[in-house]
Design brief:
With 230 residues, the protein is an alpha/beta fold. Helices cover 48% and strands 13% of the residues. Helix 1 crosses helix 11 (214-226).
Length: 230
């Protein structure tokens, strides 16, 4: 049984469940992955907690993990990138393995044929400030390009907020623009390092360069956990 700690935001968690289903090799109901979605949008804002002294989300995150433990889950997937800033604390407090979304994204880059080198990274200000991607990906040979601070304030964060407000179509143009700017600076691919960003990108034409969708990447990691090769 896979536990999904969602609600951050709600649409990202719901989309993860859909993508988990569509990416699972199955011919009938009984071959799909048993899963429980704990969707609690009351979890305090992760970026505000890290950058502005906002309420600590860890007690809320652990409440969800405890619920998934009690339900009999064997692993946890968290379709929220910024929440992984509390990964060590969560993993240290549960016996369940937590699938790490950054490691899943790194594996997805390899699946796309993008090896070590320069890549672009779109994410929340909290994720970038915590260097969740930079540290892990640099350890695997990647050099991360990120948007300028003014671009984050003017384009990226407002687009993420539009997705959270269910104005998904309005997020496409600014997110596509920011991704294209990273490619123009020399990136070979762009990691969509916030689970709201793939939702905005999916609202318009496919981008003409490789992107690692972290919702899909985490879903693939969950499938690999549930249905190991061999």
């Amino acid at each position: 049984m896979l536990g999904v700690l969602g609600g951050m935001g709600p649409l990202a968690g719901a989309t993860f469940m859909q993508r988990l289903t569509l990416l699972t090799p199955a011919a009938r109901d009984q071959e799909h992955i048993p899963a429980i979605l704990w969707s609690d949008p009351r979890v305090p804002d992760r970026t505000a907690a890290r950058l502005a002294g906002g309420e600590d989300p860890l007690p809320w995150l652990m409440r969800g993990i405890r619920g998934l433990e009690a339900a009999g889950c064997g692993a946890v997937a968290i379709p929220c990138n910024t929440a992984h800033g509390w990964f060590d604390a969560m993993q240290g407090a549960t016996r369940l393995p937590i699938l790490h979304i950054v490691e899943a994204a790194a594996d997805d880059l390899l699946r796309l044929g993008v090896g070590a080198g320069r890549i672009g990274l779109l994410a929340t200000k909290g994720t970038l400030a915590m260097r969740l991607y930079q540290e892990r990906l640099e350890g695997r040979g990647y050099d991360c390009l990120v948007p300028e601070e003014a671009e984050m304030d003017r384009i990226v964060m407002p687009a993420i907020d539009r997705v959270k407000a269910n104005r998904v179509a309005e997020a496409y143009a600014p997110l596509a623009e920011s991704a294209a700017r990273l490619m123009a600076r020399g990136a070979r691919a762009v990691v969509l390092g916030c689970t709201e960003i793939p939702l905005g990108i999916a609202a318009g034409p496919a981008l003409p360069f490789p992107v690692a969708d972290t919702i899909d990447a985490l879903a693939r990691a969950a499938v690999a956990w549930a249905k190991p090769a061999g």
